Amino acid sequence: ECFSWNMMLSRCIRTNLNLLKQNNLFNKYQHFARSFSKPSLNEFSEKVKLGPTLGDFIQKSTNNESHEHNHHNHTEAAFESSLSQSIPYLLSNENQHGEGRKVFIESYGCQMNMADSEIVRSVLSNSGYLDAETPNEADVVFLNTCAIRENAESKIWSRLTELKAMRKKRDITVGVLGCMAERLKTKLIESDKMVDLVAGPDAYRDLPRLLSKVDEGEQAINVLLSLDETYADITPVRTSSNKVSAFVSIMRGCNNMCSYCIVPFTRGRERSRDVQSILDEVKLLSDQGYKEVTLLGQNVNSYNYIPDDHGELEDVKLRAGFKTIYKPTKSGVNFTELVNKVSGVNSEMRIRFTSPHPKDFPDELLHLISERPNLCKSLHIPAQSGNSNVLNRMRRGYTRESYMSLINSIRKILPNCAISSDFISGFCGESEQEHQDTISLLEEVKYEQAFMFAYSVREKTHAHRTMEDNVPEEVKARRLKEVIDTFHHNLQYKNAAEIGKVHLVLVEGHSRRSKDHLTGRSDTNKKINFPDIPIPSVDNPYHQSKPRVGDYVVVKIDESSGVAFKGTPILTCRLDDFRYLKDKFTK
Length: 587
What we know:
Largest sheet: 6 strands, parallel
Mean pLDDT: 87
Helix content: 25-40%
Number of strands: 23
Distance between the termini: 84 Å
Low-confidence stretches: 1-5, 17-39, 59-73, 75-86
Structural class: alpha/beta
């Protein structure tokens, strides 16, 4: 009897919590207690006593399955009615309206932060806040931060010092958002009146309430990580002026726990958006005239959406030669299936994705990219090191040999694909020979883009807890220079081989250096500048007109300068047309 009562109680509570989520109030209020400062705890306790009791959450159950649907509707109506009454310890919406105050958001770090800033704009816009064009006209300034390296955090502290000087001249609210907010929450709040508000990556829905706490004279903080927050129901407010390219976040968090990386501690565990919400957002962007979408995630190709009504599921299968330190997850809708659906929304819209992990690159994905003209032939394959022992200490889950097996598969299936990578110099215990193995990997692969940094120890990480940062800073700097020099040396030869080739360039706008030139990127992510002159189109070869922003232009490469190219425009055409025209112009 006791067991039956507990089961009924558990079921009733789950039912009403689900209803609370459906009313979009759960996400709104789930972190409310976090921001209460110590002096207000007694007051809060008194308010809780006046709030609903356990009995208010327990609904009578019925064993009659034929009445279950009607019972659910009755329960939901009653629950909605009860929510309309004032609950003392839940802040009302009346104090959470921006009333036209202006907000300026400065974004630092990766593309995910840029996309998150668009989520923040949407949340605040819905609460009556307006965008400020500059910090000088803003009532609220947010810094959306990165914590991946010490240098990134140093920039934020420097910027906070500048804003502190601005606060002496006029009253503004300063908030720190993102990864640094989660990592250094207490230090930020105690930073000599530099910061009023701190919000982690999963707390952006809570910003209107946090700002209302600041208005009441309190400092506010919410850095709780979520197991399910994806912001899938929030339409980002994009500020791109050219309306050509847009980011679409498809998953958040990371499970890999690489020994050097802070991301799992600042972004939480992996969770994926539902497929339909992603397709709806991409369709909306297509209808608005966007021509390129970049799918985003901390491990974007680890996307794995499991619907509520799933049946029996198999374990996720990794690429041969790769492993993880966490137990296998069940397989839902995987990344290859998602990309297949997304690329079918509009065949004239280019699709990119970043940042992936090498373990989640099945050949099926590579073949799909090969078959679809609108899937860009540019892949980011982070190596981090060219030595298997270092990779093992980094807990990357692969060896140099398995990494090269993936590279060889890409070269075979996508022979013209551009490959980029990440490298860390001077990781814990890295010997000179291990460093030379990274140099030899750069020589072997000949990447077309690379992000190269010296190792920076991050608190909380596995390396911080169990390893010694024992490579001297001057050695790190020398090794990093050798990595950078090797990359650029190889890039010169790669770029020289592009002379005379043709690329399809998506026009992004005028060159910053010359209003007489347009600029854009090829599907291999090469930046190409060319004269803004009239050219024919594939549909009307006898009439010439200047290309417009968002057009696809066939450009012949004339010269390279560093990481950019200069070329001659030939004609405008569609994505589907280019695969048939490419060989003709190359000849």
